[in-house]
Amino acid sequence: MRKLFGLLFLVFAIVPYLEAESPEPEAPLTAEQELYQRADWTILKAPITGSIGPATVHYLKEVFKQLKTTDAQAVVLEINTPGGLLKSTREIIQLINEAPKPVITVVGPSGAQAASAGSFILLAGHWAMMNEGTNTGAASPIDSSGKDIGPTLKKKVFEDTQALMRSLAESRGRNVEMAEKFVKDAISLTDTEALEANVINQRIAGNEDLVKALGRILLLFKDQKINFRGRNISFREVEKRPIGYFLEYIADPQVAYMFTSFGTLGIYIEILGGGLIFPGVFGVICLILGLIALSTLPVNVGFLLLLLFGVVLLGAEVFVSGFGVLGLGGLIAFFLGSLYLFNEPIGGDYMAVVYTITACLGIMFVILTFVLVRKPRTHKSMVGGRAVCASNFINGAGLVQHKGQNVKAISKSGESFKDGDVVAISGSEDDVLIVERAGPEMQSIL
Fold first, then answer.
1. Interatomic CA distance for residues 268 and 264, integer angstroms
2. Which tops the pLDDT comparison, 249 or 102?
3. What digits encode the pLDDT tens for the residues 334-366?
4. Tens digits of per-residue pLDDT, 378-395?
5. Which among 130, 122, 102 is positioned nearest to 209, based on CA atoms?
6. Cα(257)–Cα(143) distance, integer angstroms
7. Which of 2, 64, 220, 267 has a CA between 20 and 30 Å from the CA of residue 392?
8. Distance CA 119, CA 140 (A)
């Protein structure tokens, strides 16, 4: 009996230890965890050059779309910019903050800068690096013409941008005081100074050292440790669409200002001149491009307007004697508007489609213009009606306006009429009207 109790005691004493030592089944890895367990890593690379504006935002939206939909583990933003629009900078920061994978910001190559808006993007990265011989900072806001902002508005804008810079530095564990001085005092730091001041995480010898530098990174991203060490890293550069290069060009503040000024001037001249056609067409195209460049008009809306404007001009050329200006302007507007319709990287077959359609429209326009010019225009339907002289008659010939259309005319008696005189249309020869002075009963009826 004692043996039985002793055996039971031994069993009950051992069971708890057996239960404690039994291993629990490991939870299966998520798709995201499995992605970072791979030995071979692909990192997207996106250069940010030129002025920060709608073109940059447009390009980076495509970059982050690929980051989300492909098996890339991270993205490197290589910055070389003198600055740009604050509105576009905020949009880029939002893209970085909402990125599904780590964003590494690098100022490079050697001699590059991340000034003004570029310093915000640099600090927004989850890991910030600078090449030797680069600098960052000088982020004090100025107006679009390059001048200082007025006192009241200056205080509001400075407070807002300083708060943004503090927020970025705090969220990334960087030197808040020094980052704020970028805006407050417009200071600029070299790569060595930025590393010593804890504004960036790493300093590299050059772009050729980038892979080696990435291989030393261990960062915390959304409560998950991302270990770059020991990985076989390769880069895949995200190519820009053709429209991206064009937007980058017009985003330059001087170019944007030029487009806006020429556009406004062209429309003004068209209103004063009445029927000159070229200034109006040129002005509308330039003004739309200028508003897109200044981020006043959304990119998609602006290029849709260009496309529609091109179609309207091409149609108007058939019915209005625009001497080819309407058709040419329509082709240009149609081509520019078409560039935004295709969401493919450069090098795709879609450019051939745009070129082909534009060329076909151009050929049709030339043929129609040739046919209409060769075909005698008659104005028999105008005979018996009244018109207003649109110019002074010289040697009995000039222009008259009938229902909004300017038509060549000659005086039946050889009389020279003045601009604004009311005349009666007594006949026509081909595309020329024959007019005579209108009687008293016609003077008040137009």
1. 6
2. 102
3. 888 777 765 444 445 556 666 677 777 667 766
4. 566 677 788 888 888 888
5. 130
6. 12
7. 267
8. 11
Q: Tell me what the mean pLDDT of segment 307-326 comes to.
A: 76
Write down the pLDDT at residue 387: 87
- Amino acid letter, residue 383: V
Q: What is the pTM of this model?
A: 0.70
Report H helices in 125-252: 151-171, 176-184, 191-196, 210-214, 242-250
Q: Is 382 exposed, middle or buried, given 0-12, 13-18 or 19+ CB atoms closer than 10 A?
A: buried
Element (H, E) at 394: none
Burial class (CB in 10 A: 0-12, 13-18, 19+), 401: middle
Q: Tell me phi and psi for residue 219, to 5 degrees.
A: -130, 160
Question: At CA 78, angle to CA 64 and CA 50, rounded to 5?
Answer: 95
Q: Is the pLDDT of residue 31 over 90?
A: no
Strand 103-107 to 113-115 pairing: unpaired
C-alpha–C-alpha distance, residues 310 and 290, integer Å? 17
CATH of domain 380-443: 2.40.50.140
CATH class of 31-238: alpha beta
- The ranges of the chain annotated as CATH 3.90.226.10 are 31-238
Per-residue DSSP letter, 442: H
Give ranges for CATH 2.40.50.140 in the chain. 380-443
